[in-house]
């Protein structure tokens, strides 16, 4: 069961007729003789999906996925000034499993592909804001480069297992991004199962942890949500993320295996992005 934040009064300065009309429409009851009507406050979660912080390599080129350290810092400052609380992967997992409360506005920072450059370009900024994060690693490419994006993105080194262990020690939870970084629409049922299981086992073997979060490569979960839901659960994941979408409310009847993330790239206008999300 998902736990929500405490209730809050909304009736001050409202006439009794207005109170009754709103209460009847929302199915809200009186809380005491003073006629305070209350409504559950569902925590809002914004999951940010980044790829690369910093500049491309000298032989590369700039793409939308590259965000400068200054812009990344400015984006975290935007959330900090507006009262959003930075969230750890573990805290979100606990809340989704009914084992804890979240602040009214929470931000989970995630990084896809686990680039080595995050250690130098993102970690100091995260520390400055006391912000935990999660990084999703395609385990076949750990310690190599992003060959899966060859010709689309500059080739850049993906963190090796020692660096991923350093991420863990610094409060960045290492989670699964599949084994070969292929979209699920192009895979057979057996291949999908292998993507989920092989990556989970690699993280367990090299980091000694059980990855409970998964991020679909390219946000591609295949054609059948119902089937995918069952397959992911059997593989031992509690949460899976899409790529794209808006914020979500913890109290929504929303599958934890298809959670939205806000795609973050250079030039993103957070005022527009968050205001466009219906949950905020």
Describe the protein's architecture and organization:
The chain has 280 residues and is α/β, with parallel strands linked by helices. The protein has 2 domains: 5-40, no CATH class; 43-276, TIM Barrel (Alpha-Beta Barrel), CATH 3.20.20.370. Helix content is 31%, strand content 18%. It has 9 helices and 13 strands. The strands form 4 sheets. Strands 3, 6, 7, 8, 9, 12 and 13 form a 7-stranded mixed sheet that branches. The protein has a two-stranded antiparallel ribbon with strand order 1-2. Strand 6 (85-87), helix 3 and strand 7 (105-112) form a beta-alpha-beta unit. The chain is globular and about 45 Å long.
Mean pLDDT: 87
Helix content: 25-40%
What is the CATH architecture term of the largest domain? Alpha-Beta Barrel
The CATH topology name of the largest domain reads TIM Barrel
Oligomer state of the chains in this structure:
single chain
Largest sheet: 7 strands, mixed
DSSP strand (E) fraction?
A: 15-25%
Provide the low-confidence segments as ranges. Answer: 1-15, 30-39, 276-280
């Amino acid at each position: 069961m998902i736990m929500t934040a405490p209730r809050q009064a909304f009736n001050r300065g409202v006439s009794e007729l207005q109170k009754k009309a709103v209460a009847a429409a929302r199915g809200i009851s009186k809380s005491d003789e003073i006629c305070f009507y209350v409504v559950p406050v569902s925590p809002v979660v914004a999951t940010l999906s980044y790829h690369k912080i910093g500049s491309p390599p000298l032989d590369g080129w700039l793409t939308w996925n590259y965000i400068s350290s200054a812009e990344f810092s400015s984006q975290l400052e935007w959330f900090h000034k507006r009262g959003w609380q930075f969230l750890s992967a573990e805290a979100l997992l606990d809340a989704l499993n009914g084992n804890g409360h979240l602040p009214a506005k929470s931000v989970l920072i995630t990084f896809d592909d686990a680039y080595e450059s995050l250690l130098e370009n993102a970690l100091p900024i995260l520390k400055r804001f006391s912000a935990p994060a999660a990084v999703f690693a395609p385990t076949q490419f750990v310690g190599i480069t992003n060959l899966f994006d060859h010709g689309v993105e500059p080739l850049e080194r993906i963190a090796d297992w020692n660096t991923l262990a350093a991420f863990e020690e610094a409060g960045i939870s290492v989670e699964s991004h599949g084994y070969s970084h292929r979209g699920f629409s192009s895979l057979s049922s057996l291949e999908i199962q292998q993507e989920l299981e092989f990556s989970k086992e690699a993280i367990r073997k090299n980091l000694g942890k059980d990855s409970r979060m998964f991020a679909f490569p390219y946000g591609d979960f295949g054609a059948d949500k119902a089937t995918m839901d069952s397959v992911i659960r059997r593989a031992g994941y509690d949460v899976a993320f899409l790529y794209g979408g808006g914020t979500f409310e913890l109290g929504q009847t929303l599958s934890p295996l298809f959670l939205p993330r806000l795609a973050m790239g250079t030039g993103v206008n957070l005022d527009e992005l968050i205001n466009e999300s219906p949950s905020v």
